[in-house]
Amino acid sequence: MARVLVVDDALFMRRVVSDAVAAGGHEVVGEAANGVEAVERFMELRPDVTTLDITMPEKDGLTALREIIALDPGARVVMCSALGQESKVLEAMKAGAKYFVVKPFEESRLVAAVNKAIG
Amino acid sequence: MSPVDRAGEGARQLVVFAVGNEEYALTIGEVQEIIRFVEPRTVSSDADWILGVISLRGRIIPVCDLAKRLGVPRGEAQAAKIIVVESADHTVGIVVDDVTEVLTVNESEIESLHVAGSRGTQAIAKVGERLIVLLASESIFDSTELADAV
Amino acid sequence: MDPNEYLPMFVAECREHLQELNLAIVALEQTPDDPEGVDAIFRVVHSVKGMAGTMGFDGMARLTHEMEEVFELIRQRRGAVEREAIDIVLACLDELSAALDAIERDGHEVIDPTPLIPRLQALVRGRDKDTASSDDDEAGEPPLGEPLNVRVVFDEAAQMRSVLAYLVLSSLRERGLLESSSPTEDELDGWDGTAIELTCVRGATLDEVNEVAAGTEGVVAVSADGEHVAPPSASAAVGAEPTAPDEAGSDQPEAVLLGDAQTDDAGHEPLPSASIARVRTVRVDAERLDQLMHCMGELVVHRTQLASLVAQSDVPGIGQAMQELERSSQTLRAIVMKVRMIEVAAVFGRLPRLVRDLAGKLGKDVELSLSGADTELDRTVVDAIGDPLVHLVRNAIDHGIESSADRVRAGKPATAQLRLSARQAGGGVVISVADDGCGVDPAAVAATARARGLAVPPGDELTMEQAIELLFTPGFSTARTRTDVSGRGVGLDAAREAVRALGGDIALQSTPGAGTAAEIRLPLTLAITAALVVEVDGQPFAVPLDRVEWTLALAQHNVRMAAGRAMLVLADGVIPLCDAATVLTGHEASVPPEHAVIVRSGDTQIALAVGELIGQRELVTRPLPPELELSRPVSAGAVLSEGAIALLVDCEALARIVSREVSTSHGIAA
To answer: Which chain A residues are Cβ-neighbours of C159 within 8 angstroms?
Structure first.
């Protein structure tokens, strides 16, 4: 079981992701609605896995990812992206994200991605 | 290894530098190297003449403001340098306004000073019209001496 | 995949091999008829050739190929080896070593093996007169071995194939299997293909590659030249066209890779351990060791967090479980530190060759003995003592040891003894370099010092201590020893400084006429501290990680004044809030603090208000110079990778200050 931080600007998506994570046997320890909050909550909660939306207000997912990796090079981040964001996802992987899911996704895919991130 | 009382050895090489309007010198053997001034990392020392520390090839060495230590005004220090000095067991940096030259003087031109309160100074070299104060590097950082003198 | 990524590993491994060769070849000179030694040399030369070829360093590959020829012949002939051959081979090693220096410096090979190759070939021809010519069939360059080529095919329907391809490439790279790929990692942006071509490192097997690729979604087929592995994923619809087998079946990478195969089937037993020591070790990238340390630091933080939760919990048995966790994580930390230790042999190995060359050049007869080479030190320390040690050895041979004639005249054995030993002593290690030469002559030292314009203590005669101190004076040795031998402008003073920078020291003792002994004292390990680096009023400070409980953003929490002091109000209690700028620098920061680091000292928790959280670092801490006269709660300094100096916060002293200042407010007003 992993402690997961769920980051997405849409409340709906946070619900979907959180439910999927919980259904996959993991614990959602916190949620954040933008990149700034994401980094703060990451520092505070030290989750095992962070799911990170790419497009968000204030600070986008890629910037948040870089800051999180800078704070903790061992951080395990799963990027949540839309279909057209392939090169952003690639950039995120190069920046240290562990895995990715493409929205819309099935519950099982997200859980598989979280499990892959745990390694 | 105090060169002070040694007599009749002939010439001595001095590294001469400027602090405010005055000229000071250290014996060349005491100077390990001279580097361009870099802003030391402040450490909030209890001694106000300690500017902080710098890293020299991985070592952390203290840096002192010689003008403040000697109680003389600082000059316009565009060419400021840090003279790295080996003193007894420690390596320390001394900030000076500029390093002007390496001068060879005869022992006969050097007069010992035994004046109370002459912190860290040990002798004066008279070279032509110039007066160059010779410093004893060991005592620059010696706080007990400072306490006595102030 | 950038071959440069393998460069440090290549350089490090080649250096080790060259050192092994130096040792083995000098040993061969002493025991010329040692078939096992020759075999071992042959194998190592072969490895270097293979590595250089793989990296595309053709000059090194050509030279080692010729060297291999020489040793192949020596091996067949089983005769004594002439000194001339030894000299030429050693010259080749020097050339290879210089080539490595250039490669390490700027990534390019600067080597011209042309002058050496005819000399090597002459050796082969000279010895070859009555043997079957092995020259002509090897006229061309033999193949250095084809690396394994693998094709990974993705499902056309898979989303974000460029990302999937990246995952395959990066995990192969992390496992050290990948040499190059098409497309490269950098070319993936915008890539829309369905298959990637991989060139794997020599020695990688298809199974290993498949294991990695199979773990990635969207992969439907993995195939190598000639070989084909069943699609790893069940949904394999896209067939991979099995690539035609390479025309030369003998080019199987495995066959070429194992250079030992041809060595061993030459009719004799596979060698047990020959004159080249085979150590039972696993090569680990130093970076991984650092990562290990980093994870260790994390574990410590998590453990402390857990401990505070456990204290509030009343689940039966949880206290016991917590104690066990603490014990095993402490053991783990000790093991991690231990893993960083390597044997002093890593530097001792350079010395036999050095002594041979130096003694030869100066016409002196020196017998070197090494002991305690298995003494262990932190790898950083071992790396750093090489130069000082070499300097002391040079010094001993250049100045300490007399010529054989002089020795006989003085009633000593003609052959001088030079003893190097390493041993554990107290909390550190002592390495000693002792010779039975002429010792230090204080009068001569004084005369030299005066001639160099150095200050000489007063009095008619120097004591031995004074003379030795003079030897360490900057400017003493540089001038005097600029012979071909000990020169290079570094003196004993530089050697001592280098050792002191590691937290050690060098001491010299000497008896006139009987010899000199230098002792290098070193700490067992550099003080390495895992710390959270924070910014306080524009300056970096480091809080030891094992003191950090957690961190929080101040804006999200209440701060109240109570009894004249700021207190941080949390759901489950209050913690005294202490302004880091005030307590560490004596004045408030120009920008109000944003974060709080909750630190623990004993039973006390303190919230330290800081500016930015910079991140976790492994820091090599150094004591702060005593001249600084600090009364602030800092215990050491550390140079950060950016060059800035961080001061290490002394949490115990901090706790004392906070508990002392009950009535004054050093915190932030709410």
So the answer is: 83, 102
